[in-house]
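Dear colleagues,

I hope this message finds you well. In preparation for our joint manuscript, I am sending the Mu transposase-like protein (Hydrogenispora ethanolica) sequence together with its predicted structure, so that both groups work from identical material. I would be grateful if you could confirm receipt.
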Amino acid sequence: KYGPYLPIGKDGTKKQVYLVTFMDDATRYVLHGQFYPMLDRVIVQDCFRQAIGKYGAPEAVYFDNGSQYRTRWMSRACAKMGIRLVFAKPYSPEATGKVERFNRVVDSFLAEATLEKPQSLDKLNELFGVWLEECYQNKPHSGLDGKSPRTAYRSDPKALRFLDPEIVGSAFLYSEERKVDKAGCISFDGRKYEVGLSFIGCTVDVVYDPADITELTIEYEGHQPWQARQLNIGERAGERPKMPERIQPLPAESSRLLAAAARQNRQRKNETAPAISYRTVRKEDDGHV
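The corresponding structure tokens are as follows:
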């Protein structure tokens, strides 16, 4: 849901914030709700993870057809956690009626929050948390026979399904496809990673933590996940040995080119026959030579 404008942009410029909530379908209980400074898939992932951390993994999760929900990442994450992924039918407003009704209730909060003039996202979320507990979660709901969402949620006898933290951590990693090149490597974020020669030409799933991409996890059907290490060219090559002093180039003290030219010139002069000089020939008495 679109939220208010807050002075959280560059140099205090006003920037719109966005509300993301995860709600239990049967009881209308909000598992987690929070305002975020941007509108992309990252905020959905964060809110989803916090809801699972608080109340465990649900049997199914229901989204509308927004592009931020229909992602390859969401399909992988739900599969890892054993959650059935369901999407609303296109052009069916009634399919998301409960969420739309909650959003209308949130409008009353936004009107009150405007009077408080929050200057930061943290303050807005603090106000929202208090309002959510006192004005929604614990208030009677007409769709729950007068029970509050909190009471209805806690009345469910079914146990919550909490997952191993490693499973949740793995499920919320990012995933992208890459094709293995002829050297058994993939390119990722401008770097080369070793995958294996047996996967040349295959398209693999690259699972990674955006905060640390020095090591990637590779997933391929029929194989256990494995680590792809960043390829450092020349890391196994030793330091080049120094050349023996006897064959190392010596600093030049004079021009070898000019010295060679001088030797060649002297040799050329010695090989050239002297020209005949008639001045050295005596003339005979009659004047003939």
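For the figure legend, we might mention the following. The longest helix spans residues 97-116. The helical segments are 41-55, 72-81, 97-116, 121-137, 149-154, 165-171, 256-271.

With kind regards,
E.M.
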